[in-house]
Structures
1.
Amino acid sequence: MEQPQGLRERKKARTRRTLVETGLRLFDRQGYDATTVAQIAAAAEVAPATFFTYFPAKEDLVFAQQPERLQALHAAIADRAPGDSVADVLLRGARLLLESDDWSIESDTGLSAVRARLVAEEPSLRAAALRRLFDIQDELAGTLARAFPDELDDIAAHAVIGSVVGAVISTAMSAVRRGAPETVPQVAIRAAQIALAGTA
């Protein structure tokens, strides 16, 4: 018999996913600034207080997939196999993030493109993404340096992470602006390969 704790966690995961999908659809339909937390909660059939149980602010809903995916990326770097190069590990991590559908918030609902467009077009979300990006790069560089202590010092790790992240984000945003968000995984992987060319 399934334990009550397991049932509670599954219900919480469903509620979180419903809030994310509902919020993104409302942002897409009526605009990010015009959509209120109260409207998202009503459409998701929960109380506004429930929204804040899951997300501190409206912008956190847009970036809801980040913690889970970053945790997976840190694990992919830290758990490098013997003989893996820096390029091997980072390309594997890029493919994990960009090509896998195995996430609690699925990438096949069509909402990944909505999220990317919102970040590309909304000034407040662009600023939030940039603010988060600085922390993400710093944390990833630390994980990479610890995974390759004999090959990378702190400066080298930050340089490698910065080049890869910059290449991936630049090409992904370009694809979104061209109206071709479905090409993001392919172009971003190629960008990562180019950025890592010559990296051992």
2.
Amino acid sequence: MRVIIVGCGRVGSELTIQLGKAGHDVTIVDKRPTAFDRLPPGFEARTMVGLGFDRELLEEAGIKEADAFVSVTNGDNSNIVSARVAREHFHVPKVIARIYDPRRAEIYERLNIPTVATTTWGVKQILLMLSHPREEIKESLAGGDLFRMRLEVTPHLVGKPVRSLNVEGKILVAGVDRGGHGFIPVASSAFQEGDVVHLILHKDAVDLLDEILAPVSEH
């Protein structure tokens, strides 16, 4: 995949590094030459100094052949202008912009420009942590009725069927991370030591899950 990233700050540089490691062709643009110092020495990525909405620069960056365009500068206006140029002028298939102001995010979603509203996400995460101190709860879904949880398999579950955690209408094992590789369990799947489980559960089922996870001697 050929990707153009605008903004070599914390997000842009890390995104460039991760995409590069995955074998993608990445070009990163920033108006400050020193911004590229965030990239590791010797890291192979094309860097260009300039503005993300400069059409001549974008053409030089290869935007006509790009599969994706991501604008993650620290300015909402720059991100949106850059994203609109990529979407409306160059017709890049996938365009994403980071937005700080959640009100703007809603507007540009309606213009078919997907946005990552870091302010909205941050507020939701803090509210979740305040309301539910358990660190295993990673996200609330469906207006807060469902939780997404990530937890390590307890010793007494090792060897047992993954389906033993499922409770109809209450708890569902959505996936298992084993040795850095994830899979969706089937009927014959069994837990192994070191497994990390990803669950979807109803908000009223947290205590029930605790009972299931507790060693037999504690019941």
3.
Amino acid sequence: MSEPSFKGVAIITGAAEGIGRGIALRLVSDGFDVAINDIPAKKSALEQLISEITSSTPRRAIAVPGDVSNDGDVKGIVDKAVQELGGLDVMIANAGIAVNKPIAETTTDEWDRLFAVNVRGTFLCYKHAADAMIKQGRGGIAEAACYSSTKFAVRGLTQSAAQEYGKFGITVNAYAPGHIETQFLGRFDGYQATKKGLKPGEWTETLKSTVAVGKNGTPTEIASLVSYLVSKDAHFITGQSIIVDGGGIFD
């Protein structure tokens, strides 16, 4: 089977593990060169992913570590991708965190950090990616993940960005994952096990009965949606936040 033709350059944030890693691998298989990001502490995981990509495909991959809540870091991520890979066609603002506590137990520092990463991080990714795409003059695609209690903020930001950037040929959408079996979900499981006296994995197993399809999702299933949204077939879709949860919420 022949390799897919070159599709462009994509940045994926939060790509060291879980959903972000799955998206990076899928976009590589679709024909994208990738700049993969995560926090500096996860640089070794990024390097392992790059090795996996470059040893098995003709695609180029570079690591762009940084904190998505930091303006200078995000600009640097975009600039490096453009300089080393020759441009930018897709921005996947996937990085996100969660605070696995009731509101009453959540500190203001935890709340501020949650919004700094999930909302300000998405804003900065949209802003700097769009700046680069507009300079190139060939349009582009931006996608963001909606996580935790910041989902509504990212949804509103996505709608505003879609309205603002549509005239430049840039589409902007978001995906809202449900229960996806990753290290991220595993940390929630550990919290529930401690809080409720459950066995490891028991809480995760109970989630299956809360959705119509009767199972938890995988990063591959989120990556499949993202693959479509960044394709030319999805050029008339923008400003949308698409729930990918196996039928837990019907909206």
